[in-house]
User: What shape does this take?
Amino acid sequence: MMKLKRVNDFVIRFANVNGSGSASANNLFAKAVFRLGVPVSPKNIFPSNIQGLPTWYEVRVSEKGYLGRRGGYDFVVAVNGQTLRKDYDDLSPGGYFLYDSSRQLPDDFLREDITVIDIPLTQICIREIENPKLRQLLKNIIYVGALAHLLDMEFSVLTDSIKKQFRKKPKLATPNIHALELGFEYAVKQFPDTCQLSVKRSQKMPHHILMDGNSAVGLGALYGGATVAGWYPITPSTSVIEAFEKFTSQYRRDDDGKRKAAIIQAEDELAALGIAMGASWNGARAFTATSGPGVSLMNELLGLAYFAEIPVVLINVQRCGPSTGMPTRTQQSDLLLAAYASHGDTKHILLFPCNPKECFEMTADSFDLAERLQTPIIIMSDLDLGMNDHISLPLEWDDSRIYDRGKVLDAGQLEAMTEKWGRYLDREGDGICYRTIPGTHPTLGAYFTRGSSHDEYAAYTEDNDAYERCMVRLTQKWHTAKPLVPGPHIRIKDETCVQGAIFFGTSTHSAYEAMDQLGEQDIIINTMRLRGFPFQEAVTAFVDRHDHIFVIEQNRDGQMRTLLINECNIRPDKLFSIPAMDGLPITAGHITRSIKAIITPSVPPGTDTHQGGAK
Amino acid sequence: MSSRRPTFRHPDLPENDLGYTRRDYEGAVSTLCAGCGHDSISNAIIQACYELSLEPHRVVKLSGIGCSSKTPAYFLGKSHGFNSVHGRMPSVATGANLANKDLLYIGVSGDGDTASIGMGQFVHIVRRNLNMTYIVMNNGCYGLTKGQDSATTDRGSASRKGHPSPFEAIDLCQLAIQMGSGFVARGFSGDKAQLVPMLKAAITHKGFALVDVISPCVTFNNTVTSTKSYQWVRDHREATATVDFIPPRQEITTQYEPGTTQSVTLHDSSVIQLYKSGDSLDITNRRSALDGLERHREKGHLLTGILHMNEDLKDTHAILETTDTPLNALTEKELCPGDQVLAQIVEAYR
Assistant: This one.
């Protein structure tokens, strides 16, 4: 039988029951690979449930540094009876099937093209671990110990990780290390030279960190000077606020221990955004974090923020819609919702981070942008980026940086004005007007903020010309925003190339990998990674210089394609949609197949957007 | 339309302690219907702020949507105002207050804005005890959309449309007491003598203060069949007590019979002195307040006055333990931990 034999290039899947403590064990494994200097990309594929349903943790190990989901798996740790059959059937030929042999494998598990590794995890636990409460948790640690042998990993990396994890509670480290040893020793005895997949120490990532996007966003809000957050719990954005809470509770205290941040768990997402807007209007930096259903609820207030010109930052960690959809699966499907949120003519600025470093930087920058442009800034993260760990360059901060508070008049400036101040009077022609913060001056600068039509001096008006002047000015502000939002990253591999690909956010990693795959087949495609909306001239220029453009995105309807056609005046037949919508992170294989099907019509269409579910 | 008042001042207008005249607390000319109860409330707000000698620019006005929510344009023209969206004023007020604890926040809402579309936000702002005065201009109908019944329309009450409301009414004062509000009062737009000291007490109270003011809609809901008409309210109103607001350092001079007064001292040492008649309630006792409201409701009477006070509650900032400096006054120096700390934080992700 052919066994898969690879070094630092495979996918291992852990099939668990959720709520069984598997997450920390699986994370321990991924972190160990990372600490061995090998690029690793873990993906948690979890149910919308607290206990008892199937959950998978997929770890891609890639010396070449491909961090997108690959699809398929070469090794499975199958410890969930509910999914045993599927986990068994879908394993790659030549792959390895590790299961808890305390219960016999059913008779009809007859594959001959895989290697079965039977370890009686439960029996070892019962025999060796006295505390029954710990047995379930440590069962997971035992298989990690076994993996260290099977994959030829340095055992000390695992024990060091445990010690680091429990450095404040060293008593807990001991049983964990014991469990690791139990698994390791069992595998050494029973499975010598069994597995030909291995993890070898590498020097690929001397400086990198392994971080989830939501923590990076929370940290960005800390560094960006946010002091007020309103929020409502919703997967997958909750951990943004949890991170902000954690960081502010540590780094935002005055000498008396009082807090330099106020976080309110609101009654709903409307209130969450209302709180952030009220605070921003009153001169604090404020934000909220939510996901698609929350953005739907926030539409009305987003329109108010747009029209009354109130700075505010909204973190949208997208998940699989529509409606409740698949709340624990990923998508990039709120683009149109966010770009044009609310009734009437509205447009919002969107930022598209693709890794934790960008999550951090764009979040910090978004507060400057919001105050400079006096409008909502929406960060378009997603579940994959937000909740999974990603390898990233370390985060940095320029200590000389000063927050850009935008056009805000203080008391002295108000007094020095020779002309009459108007809240919505455009003095510089950039569409951005001067605002004042309540309490600034005893007699100058007060105004009445409203979502109803207003003239240059903030007075209610039903004068058609005044209304139109305001809307036209907001269009001017939109143009002003273009050079301020992050521009695209363009890679021109061939000046004469007529094909381009456009992607953004978490589609980036698989898209670049797909370009490499296509390149190996002599299909050269120039690329543009979008990082912000509105689109700059560079975006239009990239589209103009190519005959065919593939727009790679994770939704059904090609929402980014629609946005590009609408905003850049592009001939629709020039843009080919490469969608993925099954809720799992997009794979390079899918992109490669889809693009080849378009450029080589003889090849049977591979544009089915189904990537194989959780198999 | 937003007409401005003439800036001409009578030279002999009396000034308050800060040297402001009553005119300094006025706003634009009202565009509400002639005789609207809301205009009387606006005037009471102006009077209360004038008498309290508030600095106009230290006050923030907030509102939702509806006839009531237009009124912040008609008072305190030197204060910042925020006319938000329907039913969402509480959240905007919460954010504004969190950003700067040192300003005074006056919210104006209506019965539709509070008891229907904004009910969720209303009850939650009460239970968080946000330091603000929340005034409901309660006319029992949707004036701006031409007189539909609201959630505070009493069962059986009929507006100009003539159909008695078949649904139970929501009593915002009872609700606020249940949600733990430390100041709950009910007034009548036709009784300025009662309303002004009540507003002064509400504004001075630290924490959430609800003032539910019955304010007849002269156009749609001032019929003989309506329980929110001028006539009905005048005929069925009972007051818990006569309210005296005594500012700090002012001697209490009014003399009442022993046993008929109740005093509550506010956080700034102002004193609310109540002169009670008959079997009035103990306003510091939640149950007594709720009993009083229910007793009067059963009799078909409307109980007005200060209904409940509790000066011992922590406001939102105290609950959240925020720093003494207003959050909007903090700069990158106080907010940003810097690159060195970032390097330490990042170490945990290695």
User: Anything to note?
Assistant: Chain A touches chain B through 76 residues (CB under 8 Å). Chain A has four domains: 6-198, 211-392, 411-484, 489-599. The mean pLDDT of chain A is 96.
